[in-house]
């Protein structure tokens, strides 16, 4: 909305405004960064910024509400960083999204809810050698052996004797390693 | 211009101080809800309308331009939409107005009502000053951040489509290429399904190997069927091919995990070429419909994610020569690059690569093939010069393979061409002559090639392929290894129609392997020829 009043200043080509500019921006929340204006959307008052080196392949994309710009400095004018023939493949995006979500879910499963950080460390250590997952606060190893709090070798329950012994061994070994490290 | 810009911003800023205050007064509301399918659909619909047709110059060039732009005029601008689309599926940090920061996967944006966003698997990484309905520790499956709460979205480590070579694609090509891209994407998804816990980067190689193997087996079975129907006599060869294919797959699954092992690839390509080689050859000999080749190629492409490159042009040249020019431009780059975003390779650079690669491929096929001898002999009869080179080819090949890092696909693609001896004969005389001279003059070679192409023969591609090996033979001037590569390159560039057809296929061959292979082949041949 604010931009609409602003656009009256430059009616002939509102789209051209600021695109390609390098700005140093401070937000009302205290963030400070430099970026190149890729686009500005008047309807939503959001600013699309590109950060990072000009030649590096990886950039940071920042979509910032212009409402929260506290201050900015004009650093220079550049070209429109968005390629003229820009093409996005929806399938690529969708599969990327799917992958990312799956990965995030898999990682989320590895984090115990309501467990101590030590428990999580033990879990992570065990997961390097054995298949483990959380059952609430109990670490389930190989789907049969359960290790409950406080996750000492005495707490290893269930499973075949061989599996049980193996888990105990690994647990002791990992605890020893953690102590050495800690 | 700059002054005006500044002015505008100032206005915004002044206005915004008020806005911010008002926001602070209003209650903080971050809603945790189920997926907003409607929002998602809306965005997708809009994108499909616009981006399927290409986005140019911040406005749509398509016929629907007026419609779409007018209907969306009050929502997000096109540029903003593209920009936003770039971060879909990427991990982002979202700052909201009370200072809280959420990290999650950017799922979608709601563009009809200002700019709301939806995150998946979000987690609060920084607690803000306000009271929110979202705790810090819990993982939020779907988090909707409304426009009024949103301060900024930050996506780190993004590769924009315009950056580097891979992102660009011309408007004409995009339609044809897109389906291929889908294939590749599906493949990667499959791989992920096989092993969900793997990281995207790691599982690409491993998952692909598995996937590849399954599909290839399936593929070879299919080929087997085809061949049987065509001619029972070829069954034996087919079986052999299958066995080798399996072997190749085994190697592939084992070794593809380590991208560094270049030698592995070479052996792979050899085996695979043998395997797949026989089948297509038979089909062609039997004058099977070209359509079968098309499907086969598509499958192979899926099979071999790591090594294979897809070239739509290869298919087209045979079935529909007219389509070739456009097809030649389109090149598909396999997934090897870490960034999933980059799918397309612009055509500009490939020509050179193609030229270098082709010769090698041709040689490979010849050498590796068990059935080759027969064909070679045919070859030889037709042209004296050829016969000599042909026999030599087979020997050198082994050496070449060791040096080579060629991906499997080449062999597969080439096979059909190589297997057609009959065609070669008719064309060969002219080609042969050209060949001998070609060694020195690249340009002449290209002319000859063109000749063959213009000829009414249906098997133009064959000619080209045959010639390539010749090129190498000609190129062998071992004394000047340096000279050789340039000559080849020039020839490739000059070549008109015929080469282009092949180019797409060849292009898949990646540049990295080339430098090694060329010197190796040259030296090799030089010794042989001398």
TrEMBL record, chain A:
Pfam annotation, one family = AD
PROSITE patterns with a match to the protein in the record = AD
- InterPro entries the UniProt entry points to: AD, Lsm12-like, LSM12_ABD, LSM12_LSM
Q: Where is the AD domain?
A: 86-179
SMART domains in UniProt: AD
- PANTHER family per UniProt: LSM12 HOMOLOG
Name of the molecule in the record: AD domain-containing protein
Q: Which organism is it from?
A: Pisum sativum (Garden pea)
UniProtKB/TrEMBL annotation, chain B:
Recorded GO cellular component terms are:
cytoplasmic stress granule
Region Disordered, residue ranges = 162-211, 244-291
Give start-end positions of Low complexity composition bias: 256-269
Segments of skewed composition (Polar residues): 193-204
TM region positions: none
Q: Which residues form the Ataxin 2 SM domain?
A: 78-156
PANTHER family named in the record: ATAXIN 2-RELATED, POLYADENYLATE-BINDING PROTEIN INTERACTING PROTEIN
Q: What is this protein called?
A: Ataxin 2 SM domain-containing protein
Q: Which organism is it from?
A: Pisum sativum (Garden pea)
């Amino acid at each position: 909305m604010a931009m609409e009043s602003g656009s009256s200043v430059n009616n002939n080509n509102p789209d051209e405004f600021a695109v390609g500019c390098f700005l140093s921006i401070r937000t009302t929340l205290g963030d400070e960064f430099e970026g190149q204006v890729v686009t500005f959307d008047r309807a939503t008052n959001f600013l699309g910024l590109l950060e990072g080196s000009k030649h590096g392949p990886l950039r940071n994309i920042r979509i910032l509400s212009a409402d929260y710009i506290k201050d900015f400095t004009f650093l220079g004018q550049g070209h429109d960083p968005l390629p003229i023939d820009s093409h996005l493949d929806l399938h690529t995006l969708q599969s990327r999204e799917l992958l990312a979500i799956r990965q995030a879910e898999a990682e989320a499963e590895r984090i115990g809810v309501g467990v101590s950080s030590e428990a999580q460390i033990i879990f992570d250590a065990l997961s390097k050698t054995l298949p483990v997952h959380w059952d609430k606060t109990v670490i389930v190893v190989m789907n049969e052996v359960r290790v409950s709090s406080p996750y000492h070798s005495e707490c290893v329950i269930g499973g075949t004797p061989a599996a049980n012994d193996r888990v105990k061994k690994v647990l002791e070994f990992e605890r020893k390693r953690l102590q050495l490290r800690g | 211009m700059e002054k005006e810009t500044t002015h505008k911003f100032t206005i915004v800023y002044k206005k915004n101080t008020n806005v911010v205050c008002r926001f602070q007064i209003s209650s903080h509301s971050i809603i945790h809800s189920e997926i907003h399918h409607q929002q998602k659909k809306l965005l997708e619909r809009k994108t499909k309308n616009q981006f399927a047709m290409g986005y140019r110059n911040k406005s749509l060039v398509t016929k629907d331009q007026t419609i779409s732009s007018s209907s969306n005029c009050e929502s997000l601008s096109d540029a903003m939409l593209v920009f936003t689309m770039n971060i879909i599926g990427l991990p982002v940090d979202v700052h909201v107005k009370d200072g809280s920061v959420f990290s999650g996967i950017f799922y979608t944006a709601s563009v009809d009502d200002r700019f709301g966003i939806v995150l998946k698997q979000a987690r609060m990484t920084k607690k803000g000053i306000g009271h929110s309905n979202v705790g810090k520790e819990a993982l939020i499956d779907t988090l909707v951040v409304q426009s009024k709460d949103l301060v900024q979205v930050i996506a780190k480590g993004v590769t924009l489509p315009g950056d580097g070579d891979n992102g660009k694609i011309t408007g004409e090509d995009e339609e044809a290429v897109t389906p291929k891209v889908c294939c590749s994407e599906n493949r990667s998804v499959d791989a992920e399904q096989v092993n969900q816990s793997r990281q995207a980067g790691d599982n690409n190689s491993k998952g692909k190997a598995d996937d590849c193997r399954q599909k290839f087996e399936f593929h070879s079975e299919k080929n087997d069927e085809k061949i049987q129907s065509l001619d029972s006599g070829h069954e034996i060869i087919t079986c052999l091919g299958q066995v080798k294919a399996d072997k190749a797959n085994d190697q592939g699954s084992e070794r593809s995990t380590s991208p560094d092992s270049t030698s592995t690839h070479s052996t792979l390509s050899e085996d695979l070429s043998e395997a797949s080689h026989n089948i297509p050859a038979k089909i062609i000999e039997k004058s099977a419909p070209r359509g079968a080749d098309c499907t086969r190629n598509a499958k192979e492409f899926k099979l071999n994610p790591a090594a294979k490159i897809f070239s739509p042009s290869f298919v087209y040249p045979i079935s529909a020569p007219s389509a070739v020019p456009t097809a030649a431009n389109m090149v598909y780059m396999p997934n090897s690059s870490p960034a999933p975003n980059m799918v397309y390779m612009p055509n500009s650079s490939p020509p050179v690569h193609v030229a270098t690669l082709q010769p090698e491929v041709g040689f490979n096929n010849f050498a590796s093939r068990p059935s080759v001898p027969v064909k070679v002999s045919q070859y030889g009869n037709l042209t004296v010069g050829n016969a000599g080179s042909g026999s030599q080819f087979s020997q050198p090949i082994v050496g070449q393979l060791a040096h080579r890092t060629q991906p499997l696909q080449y062999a597969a693609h080439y096979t059909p061409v190589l297997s057609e001896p009959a065609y070669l004969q008719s064309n060969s005389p002219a080609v042969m002559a050209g060949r001998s001279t070609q060694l020195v003059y690249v340009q002449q070679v290209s002319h000859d090639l063109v000749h063959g192409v213009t000829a009414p023969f249906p098997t133009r591609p064959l000619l080209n392929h045959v010639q390539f090996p010749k090129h190498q033979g000609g190129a062998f001037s071992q004394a000047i290894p340096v000279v050789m590569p340039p000559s080849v390159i020039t020839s490739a560039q000059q070549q008109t129609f015929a080469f282009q057809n092949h180019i797409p296929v060849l292009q898949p061959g990646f540049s990295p392997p080339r430098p090694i292979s060329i010197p190796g082949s040259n030296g090799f041949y030089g010794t042989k020829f001398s």
